[in-house]
Amino acid sequence: MKPMGDERTHYLLALGMAKATRTDLVDAMETGALDNDAWARMLHRCRSCGWPEGCADWVDHQMESGAECPPSCVNQRRFAELRARSAQARRDSDIAVEAATLAMARAERVMKKAAGAR
Question: Which domain of life is it from (predicted)?
Fold first, then answer.
């Protein structure tokens, strides 16, 4: 059995992969999509991976691009799930803001109409 990779190295690789794929780990933690145990499992899988040099090169070339996680990443599925949940949360938030804005505009019209009727 091959030894686990260095904790710090793989922590940084996982953060780099998140950044390169625009996976918002802070949002995932805040919304409950990712907890400490799940993050620890992701790091454990990363430390077990045999692709650290290739990963580091890939991350260096993809930084800020919003690329899809490469198939060789052992956390590819998890990064995709977190990105999808974050995107859905942003869409839901946008819909809620739009609905609230419309409701406020209707309320203002009703109040103006009521004030004019006095």
Answer: Bacteria
